[in-house]
From TrEMBL:
GO cellular component: cytosol
Domain of life: Bacteria
Chain ranges of the Thioredoxin domain: 1-125
PROSITE patterns per record: THIOREDOXIN_2
Identification of the protein by name: Thioredoxin
Species of the source: Bombella intestini
């Protein structure tokens, strides 16, 4: 009983249509809501691969797009008519988008989820709509973490177009710019953040990341000089901290964290130990709490502090 009550709804969003209902459920319906038709065959393995991806993406639109399915083997008369109209339905699966009673676009074969999402986003745009903001943010965050920065920027921009005061959208956009080493772009984005959300934790964290990155770049320019000084004074905690900032500025997060952890390990209760800890916590905030470098260094920090 508990599983039934709390399990997510996995009911298919697709509506089966045939040649008797095609005009009403597809063509007529598309005059008010965009309609996708998945032309499929029960014997096609590729159809079985595409269907769950298509259903997942359409479900994310929260009703903004309607999904229908038509079995080509059971509706040969209709398929013949559509072929005469120029639709390339010789192979399955073929997905056709209808809007305002007309074919808007189509694709054939199994496509990656991000390609299908882009296809549906364009259909929504053509119909004067957009993906739900929560879904856009989820996809943008995934793209950012995967290093697909151009896609992430487009998705965050889409969020801000719908909700100009969305803190997660602004924070994500700034982090993308930082990841692209586009400091000017990040600063420009930061300057456009609406005043009312400046104190939002997501904004504060993103701006902290930007400041830390700027400092890291400045230190990175002097990294050779810092290393030479450290060779002469290998126990100088201040120089080690400067080198950690420089390493962070060049993307060497693990090495930067190890330097600061080393200072803390020498004397966690001293002024230098506390300073290194504070700097490391800044790194964590800038990197994000789920970043692999943060997780690894945080575990080591906990061991040091509670040992």
């Amino acid at each position: 009983m508990t599983d039934t009550l709390f399990s997510p709804d996995r009911t298919s969003p697709a509506q089966e249509v045939d040649q008797s209902s095609f005009m009403k459920l597809v063509v007529e319906a598309s005059k008010t809501v965009p309609v996708l038709v998945e032309f499929w065959s029960p014997s096609s393995a590729t159809c079985q691969q595409l269907t769950p991806i298509l259903e997942k993406t359409v479900r994310a639109t929260e009703g903004r797009v309607k999904l229908t399915r038509l079995d080509v083997t059971a509706n040969r008369t209709l398929i013949a008519q559509l072929l005469q109209m120029g639709l390339p339905l010789q192979a399955t699966p073929t997905v056709v988008a209808f809007w305002q009673g007309q074919v808007r676009d189509l694709f054939q074969g199994v496509q990656p989820e991000n390609k299908i999402r882009s296809f549906i986003e364009q259909l929504l745009k053509d119909s004067g709509q957009a993906m739900p903001v929560a879904e856009q943010l989820k996809n943008a965050d995934s793209a950012l973490h995967a290093g697909e920065l151009a896609e992430a920027i487009n998705l965050y921009a889409g969020v801000l177009e719908s909700e100009p005061e969305n803190a997660a959208g602004w924070a994500g956009l700034i982090r993308c710019m930082i990841a692209m080493d586009d400091i000017e772009g990040a600063e420009e984005a930061a300057s456009q953040i609406p005043e009312g959300i400046n104190n939002d934790p997501l904004i504060v964290s993103a701006l902290s990341s930007l400041k830390l990155y700027q400092e890291g770049r400045e230190h990175a320019e002097k990294i050779d000089d810092i290393r030479q000084k450290l060779d002469q004074s290998p126990h100088d905690a201040e120089l080690k901290t400067e080198l950690a900032k420089a390493l962070n500025g060049t993307g060497q997060r693990e090495d930067a964290a190890e330097l600061l952890l080393g200072i803390i390990a020498e004397d966690k209760d001293s002024t230098t130990g506390q300073t290194a800890k504070a700097e490391l916590l800044k790194f964590f905030e800038a990197w994000g709490m789920t970043d692999p470098a943060t997780l690894a260094a945080r575990r080591k920090l906990s061991s040091l502090l509670f040992s």
